[in-house]
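Please produce the structure of this protein holding zinc ion.
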Amino acid sequence: MSRKDNAVYCNCCGRRICGEEQEIRASFLTIRKEWGYFSDRKDGQIHSMDICEACYDMLVESFTIPPEKEEITEYL
Ligand SMILES: [Zn+2]
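Below is the modeled complex.
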């Protein structure tokens, strides 16, 4: 995760995704992974990253099996 003055940067393309504007914060992907004991050389590490929507689309297109999708029926 690369953060300067609370701005969020895409770890994939380096583009600045957003600053303080909360309303844009729902339009990118944040991944935070705590690697457990049985992972390969990442024991006890926490990896986190932010991916912008354009990079997310490219990433998903490279998948063999697309992600599962469902409609949000109720916004909280
Ligand atoms: Zn990106």
